[in-house]
Fold each of these.
Amino acid sequence: MGIASDFVLIVVAGLFGGLLARVSRLPLLVGYVAAGVLVGPYTAGPTVVQVHDIELLAEIGVALLLFSLGLEMSFRDLQPVRRIALIGGPIQIVLTSATGALAGVKLFGMSVTEAIWFGAMVSLSSTVVVLKTISAAGVTSTLASRVMIGLLVVQDLAVVPMLVILPQLGDFSHFFVKLARAVGIAAAFLFVVVILGKWLLPRLLKWVLVWGSRELFLVSIVAVGVGVGYATQKMGLSFALGAFIAGIILSESEFSHQALSDVVPVRDIFGLLFFVTVGMLLDPRYALAHIPRVAGAVILIVVGKALIIGLLTRAFGYVNMAPWIVGLGLSQVGEFSFVLARIGVGSGLLSKSTYDLVLTCTVFTMALSPVISGRALTLGRAWRTWRKTSPVAAPIDLPNDVPRGHVVVGGYGRSGKAVAHVLQTAGIPLVTVELNHSVFSDMTGTGLIGIWGDITGEELLRAAKIESARILLLTIPDTSTIRLCVERARLLNPEIVVIARAAREHHVAELRKMGVNAVVQAEFEGGVEMVRQAMVRYQCDEATTSRMVSAVRAEFYGGAVG
């Protein structure tokens, strides 16, 4: 059956790998990579035959992942992080490349040329892994996530000059002419794509919608994503970067939400192909034969990149947990290292041993990345405790006459804003805590009592008068932050009622175990309200409707609605 049998094998292996990862409480991504190792050419058992063809399909998965992320964002979302992205991004690439090159010469015995290739490859982080991780955690809209995305976009763009510079290490004739030509063509093409996209794509989709075919709309959306990506690749840029830009362009139109809803299932299947193919690249025999070398390189890459990127994030004014989240979140090696490695071997500038080392380190760091980035908040708080430092206190003095029994609202995002508005309208006293300073400024402009800082800090909770509060309402999506906040709030006020938001369905049980009194899962509640509205239209009596809705909620939330 050729590629069809390979596709079936990959999907089935990915299913078992995903189930094993879920049972082991690991990210699905780790299970997919492990499945790739098992069906790869270096292990016994069922093996994928048409590896190259599967890799081509996997590129579509990468493009669709970035396309869908672009649909969720907009140019406005990247505005707050443009300074660190445009200035800090190149600085990070240079510092990481230099450090990697130095380690290549001093620690791994590489030649200077090979060490420069090594440094360039490890300076790039994995856009696919990072986006998959933050999407699974439901934190794509946080400030730290936007910083990571901004830096990743710059890294992807940096691949263009790398593809020109690195192969010229053996021949510098007409070097600057080639570099200027490549960068100029790339910049001009991106400008044309953005201008034509904002004018042409919405009109094209409106024309398609006239036919009233949902299927044709989906085909059009996928064609836009991969089509722009393909055109971008032909101009010397990344296929995935072009798809990301197409998604951002469409995010400004009224079609973005429907397009995202339609493309997600297709994206997830093709994304599975990518992570399985990553695992297929790993040769366990090489890793086992060079354990000290591989382990040393992996540790050096993760720790070195985390330190460089974390310190750079702090230098650009991002405080509290952001340096830890960004540093550890971008500590892996990216998928573009595969591209650079193949070009290096093909040009004779990279030896087989260095190629194997980079490939193995890339696979390991990508597989470990979700686990490492998931420890960012824990490590950051441990560091803060050891250093005996605390988050920045409130920039304003809270009035002394805040009534007892008030509500402390954690987070002023979309959910927090709605909560605060209703409480304010109802005349219920509240204090709102927000870490994003630009959002905090908008909040205080509405007349709300607010504090800027990390709500997990004991001093900040005291400033919000948690001891006399009646309710702690947490709209933030991160379960680790909720856990620490609940623990410290209960130490200061054991009787406080905690209401928290669950970003994903499986978080409901976790929050219950933490002692949260009432858990709310937004997507579920939206569905329940839609059903209630439908029953009202069918003129069901209020008592029956209320009883059925309560029963559904009790079942979903584990028998307690809160």
Amino acid sequence: MLIHYFTLLKIAESLQKLKGSKIIEVYSQDKDSSVLTFYNGSEIFNLKYSGLANFECIFLLDSAKKKANAINLLQNIYGETLINIETFENNRILKFEFSYSHIYFLFFGKSKNNLIYTNKKDIILFALNDNKSLQGTKFEVPSIGLKNFFELPKETEIIKALSNCEINLGKYYSKEFLLRNNIIPTQSIAEFSEAEISKIYADAKEFKNSILKNDTFYILENNDNKILFSLIALHDYSKIRYESSDLNYLIHRTYSIRLSQHKFNSLYTRLFQISKNNLDRSLKRLNDSKNIEKVKNLSNQYKNYGELLISTMLPNQNGKDEIEVIDYEGNTVIVPLDKKLNIIENANKYFNKYKDLRRKIEMSDNQQQDFELRYIEANEIFDELQKISNLKDLNLHLKKYNHFYKKFMETKDKEISEKFRKFEIDSGWTVYVGKNSENNDELTFRFAKPQDYWFHIRGASGSHTVLKGNQNITPPKDIIKKAASIAAYYSSQRNAKYVPVAFTQRKYVRKPKGANPGAVSVSKEEVVMVEPGLPKGEPIE
């Protein structure tokens, strides 16, 4: 809802006070985001733009502290006056018109978000995302093409009709409208009479106007603890977390809460896996140490077998898989044999097994107390972690057990960096590239999951490349192209203009029996033409 068209209209209204101000600085210190600083002669305003996927928004900051690693942007625009702030009907774009240039803020979702800086003729001078391919082209506001409500197919569900027609309510406001009017969302247009449909349309337009007239805004929460910013109260999000007429404050607050939740989920998932693995490993070691009696009995049996074989004084028994011998108490014992070995060699084999198990027993006796202590600590860490539900407590937990987590986190990161090159090409999408034939195989067949995407230069030698992201989302075309460009860059065709790169899901890649390291067969693939390059510069690791 932060990038809903109605929200952008309200944001545009709230930012009108910036008109007449001069832009004095633009910088970026976070991925896919920037801060624009304005000065009106007496007051400084800091405008935050975030194009980070799932965190798209724009708002005024109460204060901004520029970090040491911040990158200065758009220095040619410094000193220009903001003349106008413009929106486009039903389009998620804000346009800032300056004395000699324009800045467009695009809120199209995922990788299509962007900040675009143009001259007066809308020739792109810089783009925060995908600058290499956009620079020098003409920016044009895309047509939205929302359909007329009365021209939609009769089988269309009423909630989808209201969401996608020219009224442009979207799914949340559409559902709220229908709930308030006791209309079932899944009913089709055909289930209503012409008079009923006309009334629904008229009432929906009035509902839209009431939303836009509202001057109290909300941060809401549903029963699943999901946070939502809204211009009105909603039935499905019944808990009001914050309520205010300060739109920028609430958008900033929503952004911060959701970003904190994202950081919490990412860190929690990693710590959970580490602590759970450690607990399982500690429990196994402890159980193994407690089951040492079985090992002791087995070691004694091996020793007995060896002594009985030595004492038999029988000729070589090559080719037999067992032998009957009489023990010291007159009992018949069947001793298994290795057919390839003679009696003495079989006896020595049992003595060696006995010695190996005795070392294990001695080690276990010395370490059992240590295993118990380790299991207690592992259980304590895992139990405490499961009770944590916010980022502050999670960071305190990480600090408390830093001695434990650090060794696992550093080891894992080091292993990945030593074997593969790593690129964060967009929010939620990471590319890994093999460094040699051996770890090409490891990258593809051990590190990659079946649903990950796999890339390789077509018809030439090159590194295996794997794209990881949300397993439930198909990578957008621009993400595919960025990953393919990296694969092309790390190939023998690096200096070519455009090259073909094959890509497919990892599950369609096989290792032929007896094939050389790095050699694979692919049962299903697509091909994309790209220019070799590194979209985000050098690898992270």
Amino acid sequence: MGRRFTVVEERDRRSLRSKESLDIVKRLMSYLKEDKIFVFLAIFFTAASTIFDIFTPWILGLGVTSIFNSITNGTGIDYSYLIRIILILGALYITSSLFLLLRGRMLVKATQNMTYRLREDLSRKVKKLPLSYLDQHKVGDLLSRMTNDMDSIGNNMRQNIAQIISAFVTIIGILIMMFSIEIRLTLVALISLPLSGLITGLVASKSQHHFRKKSSTLGKLDGYLEEMVSGQEVVKSYTFEEVAIKEFQEINKELYQASYKSQFISGLIMPLTSFVSNIGYVIITVLGGILVLNNALTIGAIQAFIQYSRKINQPISQMAEVVSSLQSAIAAAGRIFQVLDAEEEAPVTNREDLPEHCCGEVSFENVFFGYNEDEMVIQDFSLEVNSGETIAIVGPTGAGKTTLINLLMRFYDVNKGSIKIDGTDIREIPRDDLRNIFGMVLQDTWLFSDTIFANIAYGKPGATMEDVVKAAKATFADNFIRTLPEGYDTIIHEDGSSISSGQRQLLTIARALVSDPDILILDEATSSVDTRTEKLIQKAMDELMKGRTNFVIAHRLSTIVGADKILVLQNGNIVEQGSHEELIAKQGEYYNLYNAQFDEEESA
């Protein structure tokens, strides 16, 4: 249960590894183009704050020199000068902090807008993806990309942008100040910079793989949890708890190892760069002391220089943190771009000659289809359906019944052949227009966390209460709805657990009927209702099917006795077709299926 998507997940990892981190960063930054003003202001406030902060050691050094000279010369401390120094330092610190506050607001605005646009693009993309893509990816994994990965991008990018700007301005500004104080000491200090950069690059390259694996495994864990939570009844019914816990522990352990390795390896950057920086700091202190003793530098100047030598290591340490968090953001962005780069459903050029009304004539012409190209589920399938006919499709599991409906709705496209409605190939009809032709009731019922009215009205935008009640009465749902505490305003859960399975099915049928479709598809529509309710629904459906083309997939053969044509499928081929009476008279496959089911019902 937890291994079905292993191949797809591994393929995604290989695809992600093939992407260059720099390209991902460039693409990610392109989402900030619409917020240039906020980014510019963030850069300006960061630079201004950093510049003000850079001057503080130099000004503080002037005060130290003044005190030292006053003591050594015996002239007394110049308190008025020191007060001015303190006031200037206070003003610089306050201004620097104010600019940091403004920078934070600008970056929050810019990065939140970035993730907002990115999330919108991802949401639109998911709606354009073919069903085959969604079938191959866990729902939890896609949700993880839209939530966990989005949050990782927003939080890390906000910190990274600020630290990168601050580090760049700090290094340039401090180098200028250091060169102005003492060139020889500055050259000594510069030795540690390329060495620290080399260490950062080497360690980052080692940890990037583990950050990517961490994001991928987190999505895998979310997908597994989504399966387990939504399928609790099945898990408990088959006493699968111990196996589920064991599988969860395996995935959780994989996530722990990836997280541990990514954080541990990236965590080596700071202590290694700090070690290099400390060596440089010791050398500068010793040489600076010698220069002071030789009167080549003032005590305040060396004090300021030592502070600068420590400050210049701060951006190096910041960059170490940036590299670590940036890798997490890159891994998250890479997973999102995988979805955004996925192949969409083939576009359809709008045809102006398409009729406004659908008559409901359907033809399958030599259709071949397989979910995998090497394994055809439907082979050379042909069928002509006249307007207003009811076509029943029966057959064993895996015969291709639901696949035919998926092809008709263009959830999948045929590999070969064509499907036509009113003589027009459905691949030439815009998908929205095509699917508006159909009303569909799925075998697996699904309701939204909303009112009963909203769930039924979902089938027809702008549906009135009169429309909804009419559809509910036609499907015999009105009676039980009115017994609920709030009637049509009753809130139900997305899985419909607050009402019975039969009642859920009635609501989904009402949802399909309120749309007043030209072609009606019922995929095991009465599989979840009792015999009495089934008969009521069938009576209503017989009336509602008049004037429409209908496709009915059913295991209960008693519900399709009145169909105009019954198709018996085996391995994607029609082995028998005809009316109920004709097929019974043949005493073939349908005859055997019908009698076997009748005997089961009698014995029950």
